[in-house]
Amino acid sequence: MAGNITFTMIKPDAVRNEYIGAILAQINEAGFKIVAMKYTKLSQEKAGEFYEVHKERPFYGELVDFMSSGPIVAAVLEKENAVEDFRTLIGATNPADAAEGTIRAKYATSIGENAVHGADSDENALREASFHFAQTEIFK
Ligand code: ATP
Ligand code: MG
For the whole model, what pTM was predicted? Predict the structure, then answer.
């Protein structure tokens, strides 16, 4: 199973800007199958736990506030080479550096409010998928 799933969130900025539909369409058009999905909102505590690896970074407080500022869409995606291909599809963290046509180039506002999350390794994809979903909610 490792290697064919990734985990994503459509972040509060993109939800507020009504980009859910456009982003999901681009994800499907790129060949990803949605195998789990929920529209939900992270508490401060849950957002802090999710981004715990960044606890020592100067932007951690801002990141936790932002990620708990409104609803998100969490999803598990399936495709061969999912993690790497999805990172390519979303583009660089800072939308100013994101390649043309990528989700962040099209829909992100700033380095902090950058429209989507993408897991950065197979191990983290599994960890993040089980953070948000029970095994019975993943249909692969
Ligand atoms: P993500 O993990 O959300 O997919 P990423 O892997 O591209 O993003 P990370 O380095 O993991 O980038 O940073 C996590 C998130 O923290 C970024 O997506 C962004 O929202 C926020 N962030 C990163 N760097 C900065 C920064 N310099 N200033 C403000 N926010 C930042
Ligand atoms: Mg990351």
Answer: 0.97
